[in-house]
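@channel sequence for tomorrow's demo:
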Amino acid sequence: MDERGPDDRVSEDPGTGDSRTGERMTKDPGPKPERQIVKDDIWARNEIESPCVKICVIHSEAKICVGCYRTLSEIGAWSSITAPERRRIMDELPSRAASLVKRRGGRAARLGRGEE
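structure tokens (generated this afternoon):
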């Protein structure tokens, strides 16, 4: 014969509740774990310096990328050329921007109606 009263809660697994009444018992979670701060330096990698700005479109006439101003052959060989050679190319990239002629006005300009 069981001599437990109505307030004596029994549970074979702590936190699962009283098997007789169906009531839930809460389990003390204990102290909260400390939050770990993730530093950005774990994402830092020693990567090859690149002028890429992720606007990868080759200009149809100039045959250079409109984002970084490199040629297709420079882009393809970038990871295999030496650091001094990459630096030399990067130093001359700003002067290549002038070779890209921007079209202004779309269809109206092509038909001579763009300027008044």
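heads up for whoever presents: The helical segments are 72-77, 83-96, 106-110.
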